[in-house]
Design goal:
Layout (H helix, E strand, L loop, with lengths): L7 E5 L8 E5 L4 E4 L5 E2 L30 E2 L6 E3 L2 E2 L25 E16 L8 E12 L11 E3 L4
Length: 164
């Protein structure tokens, strides 16, 4: 039996400016901690970089939501749902609308699981000319690598963690 296709053969840290953490809290909310200590909350897009005075980016930035799951803008009072607003705003409204601001965090629970965006070596499918069974060979790509309590790649997910 060979190496499972979902197991990492090796991992390699990315440069600090590309090292993003993906956190999940006990309530099931997820967010990304950016290298500049800002966060990309669940309600934002991948490029969202929000910060809040006194907020630890390792704690959940999920805002208070209404019965429809929308959060309120503390600046304009508009109600938004994952970056889309009643006004037809298609991106983070505080970047484009005068007086708008990101909603303040309410959850603030600590992360119960964390993964790091890293270079990973794993078995990748190889395109074949015939209709035979899929072949796999080792190759480098990028993926979320679960971390253990010390912040290192979890040993149960990485066969050769020596490159970290």
């Amino acid at each position: 039996m060979g190496v499972p296709h979902n197991e990492y053969l090796a991992v390699e840290a990315l440069p600090a400016e590309e090292s993003i953490l993906l956190h999940t809290c006990a309530a099931g909310h997820s967010w990304k901690e950016q290298p500049d200590s800002t966060v990309s909350p669940s309600w934002g897009y991948a490029g969202t970089h929000a910060s809040f005075p006194g907020h630890d980016p390792a704690t959940c930035p999920e805002p208070e939501r209404d019965e429809q799951g929308r959060y309120g803008c503390p600046g304009c009072g508009g109600r938004f749902f994952s970056g889309h607003g009643e006004r037809g705003v298609m991106c983070d409204p505080w970047n484009y609308e005068e007086g708008c601001a990101p909603p303040p965090p309410v959850c603030r629970k600590p992360a119960v699981s964390t993964a790091r965006w890293m270079r990973v070596k794993k078995l990748l499918p190889v395109q074949r000319d015939d209709a035979g069974p899929c072949a796999y060979q080792p190759g480098w790509t990028r993926s979320w690598v679960p971390l253990d309590e010390s912040g290192a790649p979890a040993p149960e997910h990485v066969r050769e963690p020596t490159l970290f």
